[in-house]
């Protein structure tokens, strides 16, 4: 434990990574934690709130929880009840709204066919352009479903989302998107698919509700790191910013969110509709599908990818991975700072993956506290 008035941990960022670690350190090890965030709220990008119409919305775009990890699901279940929810997405292609990921209905409706699942496998085999060692996102999709489906569903969406052609992006970008030969129209196939019953923010509030945890919002950690005594830091922000961009800026893709409320009960048939080929936005999401809320009006969000702004998506290209490795070496050399989360480790993680990473990190940190470490008055 620290001296009276000091903190064992200064945690930078109150999103999933920071909040999970704060909760574990306080509850399991009885350590004192100060969690700092530059935004005026906890929860990071998963933060939700009620808008002026009284509809629960996600200001930073839809956050759909899904995981195959019983450990992650059971851990979060300590802080929330769940509403079962299976997300469905349609893509606006050739004047139709078609299921995505591509499945049997997608192909049959698009081309006016009546294939069976077995015949769809043969269809994919006939149009695919197999590439022995796929390197790019284009290689992955064209090698799986052929060039026409690639052009209709993937190429335009990817170019808008990343500002790059799929031929310029790592294969991992589109490798995440499955292709199905049955009629399963769920966007995810994970074992656990549910939404926090009362919202993400309520879940985070319960997670951080501990007398050993203090929360400071609207604050850049640099403003207080030399004023408040602490022993260790957990950093969840952009790793290049931590090191003052000494090796250069790591490229990120950002998003602009435009929220609208409409005087109708339902705006679109599913939670999200993708627009791969039309308009400047990539998708429209309607929150009432996702939350199950009953309301005479409905709120939606349009997503416009941007080059500048808050960092959301690390851009997966080999040269960016090489630049990150320079920062990773710097990070490993620091004995009293641990880097956790999407921005701090420059990886595109889903929410459950961040929680899993945080729980794994906690187990490693627990070993640290077998020996006492003197408190530094300025965090050195």
Task: Name a few traits of the molecule.
380 residues, alpha/beta, Rossmann fold, seven-stranded mixed β-sheet, five-stranded parallel β-sheet, globular, disordered C terminus
Cα distance, first to last residue? 17 Å
Which class do the helix and strand fractions yield? alpha/beta
What's the CATH first level of the domain at 7-42 and 208-249 and 315-368? Alpha Beta
Q: For the largest beta sheet, what order do the strands appear in spatially?
A: 8-7-13-14-15-12-16
Main sheet attributes: strand count, strand direction, barrel closure? 7 strands, mixed
The tally of strands reads 17
Secondary-structure element series: EHEEEEHEEEHHHHEHEHEHEEEHEEHEH
Number of helices: 12
Mean pLDDT: 94
Domain UDP-galactopyranose mutase C-terminal: 152-348
Cofactor: FAD
EC number: 5.4.99.9
GO molecular function: flavin adenine dinucleotide binding; UDP-galactopyranose mutase activity
